[in-house]
User: What shape does this take?
Amino acid sequence: MKSYNIAVIPGDGTGPEVIREGIKVLDAVASCSGITLNFHYYDFGGERYVRTGETLPDGAIEELRKYDAIYLGAIGHPDVKPGILEKGILLSLRFELDQYINLRPVKLYPGVECPIKNKRPEDIDFVVVRENTEGLYAGAGGVLKKGTPDEVAIQESINTRKGVERCIRFAFEYCKKRDKQNKLTLCGKTNVLTFAFDLWERTFHEVAREYPEIKTDYAHVDAVTMWFLKNPEWFDVIVTDNMFGDIITDLGAMIQGGMGIAAGGNINPEGVSMFEPIGGSAPKYTGRNLVNPLAAICAGAMMLEQLGENKAAILIERAVIEATSRYLKSLAAGQMGYRTSEVGDLVAKFVNETGID
Ligand code: IPM
Ligand code: MN
Assistant: This one.
């Protein structure tokens, strides 16, 4: 019997309440698929920081390296200045664990209301492969003469051949394995960012030669935002840098029905990966049992897939589709027709009823 050790970081705001439902569903899947999931909880987040002044304690990264995966709720606290928890916890985990891919599926499930007129589930089904350790997120730059009229602020985008190439390779492999349209689109800004995206474009074409079966395409990031709304069916897999990936995946989340359903994986294919709902801590809903836990539940499915438990992952996805297509009135917090915990109960029940053959 396969057994996995999972580090759980429920984090801030609504993180703990959605993670609780995710664990409920993962436990249901584990018991009917004969796998064992051992969850170990960590209290990293804003509350701990406010109490102790510590983001990630000494030794935390080394300890987390020993797990099979990390399941994260949300990081962000209204009393903490923006940047401290993000850099001190979320980005540190991504960087230190070298989770160089941020994988974000954008999939409209049956029964989910789409804000774009006349688009159906078959039209919105693509995946964004976002580089996750470099670009503008690397923290390069600095400030001179701060607070004076002569202030200079520099924030540089770091793009290494190695970082770009491993991300692009991952995207080609992923596109091939996915085997849908077999089309990979590079999203960049070659008309303005002529250093960084020249490297991306050259690397993209070089790697493409090894994948003759994959069609390649290029689009500027501004055009990508336009086509997400106009022709989302054009996309299969998109590869892009960290900053553009951050921005377009929020738009992607909206066209798939909102933050209530959007999940992501921070992947280190050779190491420890971390899975999270991408919506954040939603402070105004904290503790009210109103937010949608489906994003956290879908993040759990992505985690099982990464662990190689494909059947278990598909079982969760089917149960989620059952919930969206026949039960939930909306995916929005407070408008689902169910409380957070009831959505978890519902999905866990469908998992148990279906089981694995
Ligand atoms: C995300 C978030 C993070 C990011 C923030 C919280 C640092 O927006 O996961 O998309 O920018 O990567
Ligand atoms: Mn984001």
Observations:
- The pocket of manganese (II) ion (ligand 2) is lined by residues 246, 250 (CB under 6 Å).
- The mean pLDDT is 97.
